[in-house]
């Protein structure tokens, strides 16, 4: 199941001559983030909107939830951890 996502960014007055490039940059950044999060498919379509006071993008076929992932992150060595500075890791 996929839905349409609308993201609207309210801003101060944007220069009218830069609206097209700002809208394209905003749209590409949003699409890149959603793609990296595996929330949009390759067959997605989008429409971008721009006025001097807002930028918006409507994206079709957005998944409601990310796929389950396993992410493993390693921390610092126990000798370099913050506990060693408090003299609490002498037992290791």
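Q: What amino acid sequence fits the structure above?
A:
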């Amino acid at each position: 199941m996929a839905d349409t996502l609308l993201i609207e960014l309210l801003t101060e007055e944007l220069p009218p001559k830069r609206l097209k490039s700002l809208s394209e940059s905003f749209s590409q950044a949003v699409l890149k983030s959603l793609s990296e999060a595996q929330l949009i498919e390759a067959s997605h379509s989008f429409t971008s909107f721009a006025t001097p006071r807002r930028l918006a993008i409507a994206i079709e076929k957005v998944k409601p939830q990310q796929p389950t992932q396993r992410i493993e992150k390693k921390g610092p060595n126990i000798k370099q951890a913050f506990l060693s500075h408090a003299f609490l890791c002498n037992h290791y």
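Q: And what stands out in the fold?
A: The chain has two helices and three strands.
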